[in-house]
Amino acid sequence: MSLKRFLIPNIIIIFVLLTLNLTGVDSILKPDNDDTTNLTKYVQAQRNILSNYFGEPDLNEMYKTSIKFMVKGIQDSTLQIADSPIDTTFPGVEVSSLRDSYTNFEAAYLYIANNAPDEDMTKLTEFAIRGMFSTLDPHSVYIEPEDSEVDQENFAGKFQGIGVQFNVLNDTITVVTAIAGGPSDQLGIRSGDRIVQIGDTSAVGFENEMVMKHLRGEKGTKVRVGIVRPGVPDILYFTITRDDIPLYTIDTSYMLDAMTGYIKINRFAATTHDEFMEAMEKLQDEGMQRLVVDLRGNPGGYLGQAVAIAEEFFPRGTELVSTRSRHARFNQEYYSRKNGVFRDKPVILLVDEGSASASEIVSGAIQDHDRALIVGRRTFGKGLVQQQYELVDNSMVRVTISRYLTPSGRLIQKPFTEGGGEEYAYEFLHRDDDAMKDAIEFVDHVPDSLKFNTDAGRTVYGGGGIVPDYIIQPDTTRSGYMINFALRKRASFDFVREFLDTNGDDFRAAWEDNFEKFRTDFTWDKEDIESFKNNLIKEGMVITDTVSTPKFRNDSLFVPNGYFEEVSWMAEGRMKAELARQVWGMQYFYPVVNDVFDTTLKEAMTLWDAVDRLNALAKGDATEQDGVSNLDGGE
What we know:
Layout: H1 3-22, H2 35-52, H3 59-72, H4 98-115, H5 121-133, E1 141-143, H6 145-156, E2 158-161, E3 164-169, E4 172-178, H7 183-187, E5 194-198, E6 201-202, H8 208-215, E7 222-228, E8 236-241, E9 243-246, E10 250-255, E11 260-265, H9 272-285, E12 290-294, H10 303-310, E13 319-324, E14 332-335, E15 347-351, H11 358-368, E16 373-376, E17 384-390, E18 396-405, H12 421-425, H13 435-444, E19 451-453, E20 459-461, E21 470-471, H14 481-488, H15 491-511, H16 515-521, H17 526-539, E22 541-543, E23 551-553, E24 556-559, H18 563-584, H19 589-597, H20 599-604, H21 608-618
Parallel strand pairs: 11-12, 12-15, 15-16, 16-21, 22-24
Antiparallel strand pairs: 1-18, 2-9, 3-4, 4-5, 5-6, 5-7, 7-8, 10-11, 13-14, 13-18, 17-18, 19-20, 23-24
């Protein structure tokens, strides 16, 4: 971008704001609505689109749609629209420059502010900005100030606070677990503690937002909390010094067997590569010779982190991804800058319809270079790259700046229409329930222009996500009416909380020092299962002979006799996983869940011969006919 193009929009904003001052117009504006901020924010949002969007935005359409959205948000039904500044059909309302847009929006804004004084102009401005973004791709969005702070924390990989995971149960803050190494953990705060006082204020009745407001704070500041601990008669008081609390992006890492490591990544944030390498080092110390990387349900994140993860599987100089935009500054090729620490080891990568963006960058590089076996279901199909820009009130806009291409040249972005955000976001729900049929249906309709070849000559496809090398069906038998009912009622959490209140000391003495023994040997007593069943009945589960299959009615679940006993193994597994979470922490939840429920992982563990064949194909020691896919009749 030239200096002239950069300066002119900023000069315009300064000019119009000075004009408002000099002409006395801002004396008409309502200061309690912060009108200057709203007007500036609108221009900033629009300028960020014009300066950075990967395609050619239609400024006139952006403006008119923004006004339409603003009008929809007006509460005053008596406000005249026809032949007014908020009438986008009025002759002569054509916008061809940022100056035109601001002038027209200012007139519309002032018309509403002066003729409908009770309207919330900040909210209406946000409606207008959302309307503006609705004319773009589905991933370019406006983010409110409150959501912006949470969003930045998630991708920064940390926040500042006391370091506990909590739930509010019966109006009381209950510690689920103290984050390992955090300030609360160091002071001995533990699972099951009830926070009843924060500072001099009773915390009973706090909702989640109030808890975070009172417990989070700048690093180094202190907060005093009063805690009720089961079995201890008096309130315990702790003065906690707030600190940086990590938000982990590696859900768990552990050995599946004597030689196979497993790492589950939930998103790509600023700390993901560091976490990944720490997990890799731990697993290698435990004897890992091959690896399963789980990207299922991973919506993506930072492109740079995806590149950093991908390069750990390749030698130096391997192309990983490229980006293309109408702005030359966003065009870039990314190559592995080093020899990856796991470049010669067998790898399986798990994906599904929830794997998107950065997950697909990693998957695309690995598949195009025949580096690992991609297993699971067709991915989401997001081939666009976004960048965030902060606005005057700390809100953000996320603007698509480029497309990305896999090393073979594939754009895996699925089709979209402007304004079709909801339909686009939930497209995967309309795919065939049979994952194999979905993949075949997709492949059969891919035009030749979207067919590409891997390094070894295998055919891969663009235009709708990444089709795995091996399709594995979801196991619908491991979910059901009762387990969904129990999850909705938080029955497992409540039961485990009560169990630890009564038996926590004995349980910890028996199991806390040996999670692996707990994982393989722990089972619930019959009395525990019966108690859990009674809890479900209290929550609305009705056992009756008048139904043949479970049915919901008025927030109750009607089940036939014997149904609970038939599926109780699922409840027991979920309760065991919840017990692991509350005693050891979140990363210990997943090994138990995987043991009980994850049939995809179990089936993937039978595919190492296919991985060997793929490696042979990549080295030129085999042909594609030797079979590394089940999509075209492989094993």
